[in-house]
Structure formats: C-alpha cells, structure tokens
C-alpha cells in the first residue's frame, strides 16, 4: 500500500507543472500585453477644446506684433505708449526727414536735360534723379544707392550742383566738387531745371 506521504512526494511534479503553466501564462500575457489598447489620442481633442475655450482676439496676430514690436526692444516698452509714440514718429518722420518727403500736392516738376541720352524730361522733386532716369528706361550707373560711393555721379553743367538739386545725406563729394557741378544722382532731388551728364565722376 502506498503511503500518502509518499503519494504526496510523488505528486510534486503535477504541482510543479501547474506552477510552470501559471508562470507561462503570466509570461505570455506580459509579453503580449494585456490586449488593452488606448482608445484614441485625446491630445487633439484637448487642444481643440482649449482653443474653443479661449475667446477670439481682435488682433491680427503677426501684424499686431510687428506694429507693436517695432524691432527688438519694442516688446519691453509698454504697448500703449510705444505704439502711440511710434505712430507719431513715423508720421513726423515721413513729413520732414528727407528732401524726398514732400506732400503729394506740393510736388513740383522741373525740365532736366540728360545730355548723353539726348533727351529732356520732367523730373519731380520727390524722387532721386537716378530713379527717375531709370524710369525712363536708361541704364544709369550706380552701386550703393545711398550716397556712399561715386558710382552714380553725374555733372550738372549749369553750375554748382546744389543750386539745382538737394542731396539726401551724400557722403562722398567735397565742397569744391559740388561747386564744379558734381552730384550723386542716387540721393539728388531736383530743385530746379538743369542739364546733367550722367556717368561723370570728379
Ligand atoms: S550709387 Fe553710390 S553714391 Fe550713388
């Protein structure tokens, strides 16, 4: 007769098998996952909800920032003051900061003879000679267009150039050269009628 104790001793393999099976199931489940899948990505919904909860602003975003910012330091200045001052400055600036800033109803025209081109045209007093010559379709010389070289120089043959044009911050011509009629056409605004030879530098 088999002693129960012995039978128990004989049974362990079954218990072990059971335990192994359980372990396997646990292992398989953990490797495969539980089968639970997150439903959908709710971040979109959350964002949409938040967006709809924020009231619409009156500000056109980029433009508003550009105007209010006004460059790097603009953001640090209180918005109201900065915008007001800036607006005033801009208006004030365009009204009288350069020889070309002439109100439309005060623009005058002068007869200007371009000797080398063999033509006389009417130039307004609110645009540089170079620009208006180019508008005529002439290939006039230039480089910086800021009065800082002499590439665009021309010679007014009627006398000192500043009797006939106003320079906007020309930095190259000396007094004597101006007296000789030289002008930098990129920054020279007509103030009278005259004859000019383009492409003539001192
Ligand atoms: S293009 Fe340089 S001064 Fe006119």
Automatic annotation (TrEMBL):
Its cofactor is [2Fe-2S] cluster. Residues 110-202 form the 2Fe-2S ferredoxin-type domain. The keyword Transit peptide does not apply. Residues 66-82 have a biased composition (Gly residues). Keywords: 2Fe-2S, Electron transport, Iron, Iron-sulfur, Membrane, Metal-binding, Transmembrane, Transmembrane helix, Transport. CDD domains: fer2. InterPro entries: 2Fe-2S_ferredoxin-like_sf, 2Fe-2S_ferredoxin-type, Beta-grasp_dom_sf. Coiled coil: none annotated. It holds the Pfam family Fer2. The chain crosses the membrane at residues 12-31. Residues 54-101 are annotated as: Disordered. GO terms for molecular function: 2 iron, 2 sulfur cluster binding; metal ion binding. Belongs to the 2Fe2S plant-type ferredoxin family. This is Ferredoxin [2Fe-2S].
């Amino acid at each position: 007769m088999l002693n129960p104790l012995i039978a128990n001793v004989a049974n362990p393999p079954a218990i072990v098998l059971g335990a192994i099976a359980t372990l396997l199931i646990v292992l398989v489940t953990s490797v495969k996952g539980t089968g639970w899948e997150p439903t959908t990505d709710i971040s979109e919904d959350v964002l949409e909800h938040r967006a709809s909860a924020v009231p619409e602003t009156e500000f056109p975003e980029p433009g508003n920032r550009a105007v209010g910012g006004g460059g790097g330091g603009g953001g640090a200045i209180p918005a109201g003051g900065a915008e007001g001052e800036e607006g005033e400055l801009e208006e004030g600036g365009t009204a009288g900061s350069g020889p070309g800033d002439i109100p439309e109803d005060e623009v005058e025209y002068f007869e200007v003879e371009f000797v080398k081109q063999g033509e006389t045209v009417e130039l307004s007093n609110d645009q540089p000679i170079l620009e208006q010559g180019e508008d005529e379709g002439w290939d006039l010389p230039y480089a910086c267009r800021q009065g800082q070289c002499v590439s665009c120089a021309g010679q007014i043959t009627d006398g000192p150039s500043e009797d006939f044009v106003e320079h906007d911050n020309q930095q190259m011509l000396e007094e004597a050269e101006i007296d000789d009629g030289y002008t930098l056409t990129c920054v020279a605004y007509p103030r009278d009628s005259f004859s000019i030879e383009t492409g003539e530098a001192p």
